[in-house]
Write a structure and sequence with these properties.
Layout lengths: L1 H4 L13 H15 L5 E5 L5 H8 L3 E6 L2 H11 L6 E4 L12 E6 L2 H4 L3 H14 E13 L2 H9 L5 H13 L17 E2 L1 H10 L3 E7 L10 H6 L1 H14 L11 E7 L3
Parallel strand pairs: 1-2, 1-4, 2-3, 4-5, 5-6
Antiparallel strand pairs: 5-8, 7-8
Length: 263
């Protein structure tokens, strides 16, 4: 996982489509539940896109990230003096005291913690550092994202790619490294109900699980559509209108669970 992300694949992913759609929608959902000023832990915060946005909205933010390249870029993005704190660390052992934050973002760690107990440990750490009544936002990759991405890219005709997608849809786990046709590292892909169950098992009250991108990320020539302001708003509207529909949740590339630490 570290070697993959040290290749700078994540540095500008949220600036490019379909990552830009994910970024806008995640900000939109988080913003509904987060009133400034709040203290926010951005756990697995990557190169600092969300931390910079939150700091700009008046929140006090501390980013935690295990990838050295991301830590370096996030510190540059934070500026001098820093607009937000940046800490090298990982989701299962946060460098903060109990009840330190009003909200915690986990917008990446659950992807690559492939064993259930590891994901629960990360969620319990988020609960520990969150104040009673505070919000926790936990993102996951949809179980169907690999298969739908293959359809979108036109690679469905490739027998090995298709076989891998079928296996990953059945199990929720990346196929063995020797079988992979994509460089994405070992990961776990959630069903919506599985994400809700894990968050609840960590002792959190689940408010909802949202589909982030909606079906719009599957559109052909998404770049041209996104460049048209009116059409971009339609794509966002489609995502909003389908975000909680249980029949359509799995069409999103990412899921976002919103929960609270019990008071």
């Amino acid at each position: 996982m570290l070697a993959y992300y040290e290749g700078a694949v994540e540095v500008d992913r949220l600036d490019r489509l379909p990552g830009a759609l994910e970024f806008e929608r995640t900000k939109e959902i988080v913003g509904r539940f987060l009133a400034a000023p709040a203290g926010v832990a951005d756990v697995g915060g990557g190169a600092g896109h969300y931390s910079a946005w939150l700091a700009g909205d008046g929140h006090t933010v501390d980013l935690v990230e295990p990838v050295p390249l991301h830590v370096e870029i996030a510190r540059k993005r934070a500026g001098d003096p820093p607009r937000f704190g940046v800490h090298a660390g990982e989701a299962r052992a946060l460098p903060f005291g109990d009840e330190s934050f009003d909200a915690v973002l986990l917008l990446g760690p659950l992807y690559h913690l492939v064993e259930p107990e590891a994901r629960l440990q990360a969620l319990r750490e988020a609960r520990r550092v969150c104040r009673p009544g505070g919000s926790i936002f936990a993102a996951a990759i949809s179980r169907f994202a690999p298969l739908l991405g293959t359809v979108r890219s036109g690679l469905v005709a490739d027998s090995q790619v298709f076989a891998n997608d079928q296996a990953e849809t059945r199990t929720g786990r990346r196929v063995d490294e020797g079988q992979r046709t994509r460089p994405f590292p070992d990961a776990y892909f959630h069903l919506p109900e599985d994400l809700a169950a894990e968050v609840g098992q960590a002792g959190l009250d689940v408010a909802a699980v949202y589909g982030v991108e909606g079906p719009g990320w599957l559109a052909q020539d998404l770049e041209s559509l996104w460049a048209d302001e009116a059409v971009r708003e339609r794509l966002l509207r489609i995502a909003r209108e389908t975000e909680a529909d249980p029949h359509l949740l799995g069409l999103s590339q990412h899921l976002l669970a919103v929960a609270r630490r019990p008071a």
